[in-house]
Amino acid sequence: MTSTLPFPAARPRPPFDRGRLLVHLAALSPIALAWWDARQAAAAILINPVQAVSQRSGFTALSLLVATLAVTPLGALLGRPRLVRHRRTLGLYAFAWAMAHASITLWDFSWIEGAFDWASLKDAVIDKPYALVGFTSFCLLLPLAVTSTKGWMRRLGRRWTRLHRLIYGIAPLVVLHYLWSVKADWRPPAAFGVGVALLLALRLPELRRRAADWGRRRRAAAP
Ligand code: HEM
Q1: C-alpha–C-alpha distance, residues 83 and 95, integer Å
Q2: Ligand 1: lining residues by beta carbon, under 6 Å
């Protein structure tokens, strides 16, 4: 049936998605913390503001990477498969924070006395194994971010799924990078390690089935 209106009928507006708003706010809120770091530096409270911002961005990137991995098992446990719609957004935010972290750190390594110093950059990345591991994780994240669009999904077909399984290797690599980079307290990276190991274990078919059954039973028993 054709419209009798002199103008095309307006498309129904999609309902307001509170979940999406929360995801954007959570992923962007560390900017405020980075701004706070900068202010403290201006007040000379922080001795090395570049290091503080680098740590803040690296920590945020890893947290968002873990959140990306958590979306599918959490959806199955809670019986909310629609949570999966946040996976791409979280993954892209993880990449954006990783890019900020890598850029700040590489700039800090290479910008010596107001000029670019290739030798310092090479020494810092090649000679520090943990930095090399970080650099490798960043290089592996790059193709995932580039191919995250629907167009690439269509073009690559089943190869897209295989390519994006790289995330299962990248997450432990980043945990190793974190663990190796800390000088004193190894407990936060170890906690990330346990979290990542658990999320990867939940990908095993048997454990995935058991977790989904457990979630179903709990929901059925809830008043
Ligand atoms: C070019 C790539 C990278 C380089 C050169 C690099 C370098 C570094 C350096 C030097 C530190 C130690 C900062 C300090 O304590 O002084 C660090 C910490 C860290 N990096 Fe990276 N990194 C890279 C990529 C990544 C990526 C891709 C991620 C996550 C997706 C990441 C996550 C972290 C985390 C979580 C920390 C610890 C932050 C904290 O202490 O709270 N890094 N990185």
Answers
A1: 20
A2: 51, 54-55, 58-59, 61-62, 65, 98, 101-102, 105-106, 125, 131, 134-135, 137-138, 141, 174, 177-178, 181-182
